[in-house]
Write a structure and sequence with these properties.
alpha/beta; eight-stranded mixed β-sheet; 13 helices; about 15% strand; elongated
Length: about 300
């Protein structure tokens, strides 16, 4: 099928490459001219503006948006709208907040334009392994985009979750779960690292992936990281978050659902950004005040 593609970051460019390899025609646009040139070399039709991108597509158009959540998505949609026609379809494949996707679906429907929210998981490995696609929106629109979805995903790796917003809701919770899994692995490996046995952590990660109940792709990635840098000396223990964990916790609060593991895993990320925590200093000061315990000073 013919598809427009906006956003050529690490995932976006790999998705375009996978679509091209699957025989689809892709017109691509990104703010980075270099990124556009790279996918042109693979067979994509590069555009220098969103207006040009829309003009390169036959009606009814299908355009996949792969840019950061929030204002960038809004800006792309606003800039595309003057160049779209009733019957066109937009797909937001980024990590947008699901309530924003519900709102965008309603606004676009008033213009006769379809909208799908496609939660996309797979990271930089998606080009080789395929992307897991969690899609929300009208079934008719979903079926129209299915040829592209089938190409992007591994076998059984895409599905319609339900009405508008459901795809990004499922992806949001998926990422919240990911926070908890990553935190559990991180804590477990730290315990092993501080054992008196001089353990080979990469070897343990590889072993656990052979039939154990904690085997996973994340554990494969842990093995890769530990083989490349056994002590993780090239890494700083500063962990960002991109919003999905926060949204997952907000959703849990709205629905009165206890989610202590996901919540604490997010808070641990906050903790990683405070190497000289005032709270830790307060704890030390209180121990000295009530018990006369020694305090390390700078």
């Amino acid at each position: 099928m013919q598809l427009g593609f906006v956003g050529l970051g690490k995932m976006g460019s790999s998705m375009v490459e996978r679509l091209l390899a699957g025989g689809h025609q892709v017109a691509a646009y990104a703010l980075s001219e270099e990124s556009v040139r790279k996918v042109e070399a693979l067979g994509a039709s590069g555009a220098s503006s969103l207006a040009e991108l829309a003009g390169r597509l036959s009606c009814p158009r299908s355009i996949w948006i792969m840019v950061p959540a929030g204002d960038p998505v809004t800006q792309v949609i606003d800039d595309l709208l003057p160049h779209l026609s009733p019957g066109d379809v937009l797909v937001d494949g980024g990590n947008s907040y699901y309530k924003d996707s519900m709102r965008r679906h309603s606004l676009l429907r008033e213009r006769g334009i379809g909208f799908l929210d496609a939660g996309t998981s797979g990271g930089v490995w998606g080009l080789r392994n395929g992307y897991c696609l969690m899609v929300g929106g009208d079934e008719e629109t979903f079926l129209r985009l299915e040829p592209a979805l089938r190409t992007l995903a591994p076998p059984g790796g895409y599905a319609r979750m339900g009405s508008a917003g459901s795809g990004h809701l499922v992806k949001m919770v998926h990422n919240g779960i990911e926070y908890g899994m990553m935190q559990a692995y991180a804590e477990g490996f730290e315990i092993l690292k501080h054992s008196p046995h001089g353990l080979d952590l990469a070897r343990i990660a590889a072993l656990w992936n052979q039939g154990s109940v904690v085997r996973s792709w994340l554990l494969e990635l842990a093995e890769n990281a530990l083989r490349q840098d056994p002590g993780l000396d090239r890494h700083e223990g500063y962990v960002e978050d991109s919003g999905e964990g926060r949204w997952t916790i907000l959703e849990a609060m709205e629905r009165d659902v206890p989610a202590p593991v996901i919540t604490l895993s997010l808070f641990e990320r906050f903790h990683s950004r405070r190497p000289r925590s005032f709270a830790a200093k307060m704890l030390a000061a209180l121990r000295r005040q009530f018990g006369g315990h020694a305090v390390r000073t700078r």
